[in-house]
Amino acid sequence: MTVLRVIAPGAATTVQASGRNGWRHVGVARGGALDPAQVVLANHMVGNAHDLAVLEIALSGPTLTFESAIRIALCGASIDAAFDTGNGMQHIVPNGRPVTLPAGRLKLGAIRHGLRTWLAIAGGIDVPPVLGSRGTDLRGGFGGLQGRVLRVDDALRLGQRSRLDTDAPRHPPWWVSLDAEPANARPFRIVPSQEAVATRLSQHAWRIDPRSDRQGLRLSGESLQIPACEQLSAPVAPGTIQLPPDGQPIVLLADAQTVGGYPRLGFVIAADLPRMAQLRAGDTLRFEPVDAIEAEQLRRRRKSELARALLAVDARVQSG
Amino acid sequence: MTAGRRERLADDAWLLHLGADTPPIDDATNACVHQVARSIREAAPDWLRDLVPAYASLAVFFDPDAVDASTVARWLDAKLADVSATSVDTPSRCIEIPVAYGGAFGEDLDACASELGMSPDALIERHAAATYTVAMIGFAPGFPYLSGLDPALALPRLATPRTRVPAGSVAIGGAQTGLYPRESPGGWRLIGRTPIRMFDPKRTSPSLLSPGDCVRFVVIDTDKFAQLEREA
């Protein structure tokens, strides 16, 4: 059985998959990969079922060793990756395509032009589904690898897969990517709520605050004040834009809590929320208002972009 | 029951407002939220992904690939009208939770009692005498916000939250009481602890409590706590 040993864990690497549904009423977040489409694409490239567990890498990646051949794909922001056979030879591992590696060491380095990359491995990372997902719930402390980020000396087992045999790294000349342009090259579209101040979200540029994580992106910029008014906690969702009393909005991401007591200014649409996973502290962004009907059209368009990317992978794999 | 305002919460969710979003918490509105939630859950439409009741509102998450948001909206409006017309009060489940009060189990008990001008025993007696309702679950998996606290026991939260509250802690925060399912930071006042696991993702029913449940606390001593902890 192939095991990947973690030599260095990377900045904040988690085991992720699709999110959880059906448990929000007892406080369980949806969670899952911040950009589920990249997970589907990476899994597809290595021949996995689309919901198998992958590694979500933020900022810088882990170093992994393995004693038999593996097939991997890296999708998302571009990441420096090198394979070391142990005899001093280093091979650059390209992104966006299936790569077969013999036994050795894979060193994932810095992420460029974005913040997060997803690493799929043929067979998938063999962790049991908890409450319907193999993804890590960091705040709940369950799912993925013991509900936490990767650590040195962790062992990642791979699930069932066909045997690979190679004595050198192999990869095709083609690549396929989704959302290749910088995340903030275009505005993030939002459906504003009925709060009067919500219209001001799209009048200013916002900067990503360093205190951002998988639960939420904290924005800094023009202070949006609304009359002090205590609110009862009400449900929130990934994408919800909250306004705490300091007037600096927070966009909730996949690990969003299930209820919140701050006023809601609207939501970032499903088509654009995954792009937010690529924003780093200090990056700036703009919002653009749309209505819910346009949001639904854009959601379907992104879905068909993913379908096209999967077809492109199939076509290239078949033509060798 | 009044027909509520409906608002889009996300591409895949509607938020139904069944009463005012501002304090104080209204128990009748909250009961109505749970009744609507039960009625939607019983109908179990194919597209339903999640149903999140809160104090005065209810989020309905749907599968956007299975149904149009407008179809869900019409279905919800009809459901609301239907529930208002029938208004049968379904009895809720009642769960008893054993709690050891004070000492190492609730380190704020003595300070809380003196702040309220009563003896620690009187505080325990009043806290354990009430029947509570799980108004909503949030903050963390399985964390219940319980309504029904004796108003004489309301206490402000700590000015500086603790970085570490032990799992199972029973606490008072403002006019509410609740339990921390897992060790976490927290600003509520700790008066006791239960040896029962409030949330375990490995159980078929991971959360001991569900929104709308009724809850009673049963006073236990240190020995009983140790015994139940071994059995848990």
Description:
The complex is a heterodimer of chains A (320) and B (232). Chain A is mainly beta. Chain A folds into two domains: 3-157, no CATH class; 188-300, Beta Barrel (Cyclophilin), CATH 2.40.100.10. Chain A contains two helices and 19 strands. In chain A, the strands form three sheets. In chain A, strands 1, 2, 3, 4, 5, 6, 7, 8 and 9 form a nine-stranded antiparallel beta sheet that branches. The two termini of chain A are 28 Å apart. By secondary structure, chain B is an alpha+beta fold. Chain B folds into two domains: 5-84, Gyrase A, domain 2; 94-231, Beta Barrel (Cyclophilin), CATH 2.40.100. In chain B, a hairpin with a 6-residue loop joins strand 6 and strand 7. In chain B, helix 1 crosses helix 2. The termini of chain B are far apart. The mean pLDDT of chain B is 93.
Please sum up the structure shown.
The complex is a heterodimer of chains A (about 325) and B (about 230). Chain A has helices at about 35-45, 290-320; strands spanning about 5-10, 15, 55-60, 65, 70-85, 90, 100, 105-120, 155, 190, 205-210, 215-220, 235, 240, 250, 260, 265-270, 285, 285-290.
Structural class of chain B: alpha+beta
CATH class of the largest domain in chain B: Mainly Beta
The sequence of SSEs of chain B as H and E is EEHEEHEHHEEEEEEEEH
How many angstroms does the end-to-end distance of chain A come to?
28 Å
Strand content of chain A: 25-35%
Produce the secondary structure layout:
The complex is a heterodimer of chains A (320) and B (232).
Chain A (H helix, E strand, L loop, with lengths): L2 E6 L5 E3 L19 H10 L8 E5 L4 E4 L3 E15 L5 E3 L6 E3 L2 E18 L33 E3 L30 E5 L13 E3 L7 E5 L13 E2 L4 E3 L7 E3 L6 E2 L3 E5 L15 E2 L1 E3 L2 H27 L2
Parallel strand pairs in A: 10-19
Antiparallel strand pairs in A: 1-4, 1-9, 2-3, 3-8, 4-8, 5-6, 5-7, 5-8, 10-17, 11-12, 11-18, 12-15, 13-16, 14-15, 14-17
Helix pairs in contact in A: 1-2
Chain B lengths: L4 E6 L2 E5 L9 H17 L4 E6 L3 E6 L6 H18 L7 E8 L7 H8 L3 H10 L2 E6 L6 E4 L14 E4 L3 E5 L2 E4 L4 E3 L2 E5 L20 E6 L2 H10 L1
Parallel strand pairs in B: 5-13
Antiparallel strand pairs in B: 1-2, 2-4, 3-4, 5-12, 6-7, 6-13, 7-10, 8-11, 9-10, 9-12
Helix pairs in contact in B: 1-2
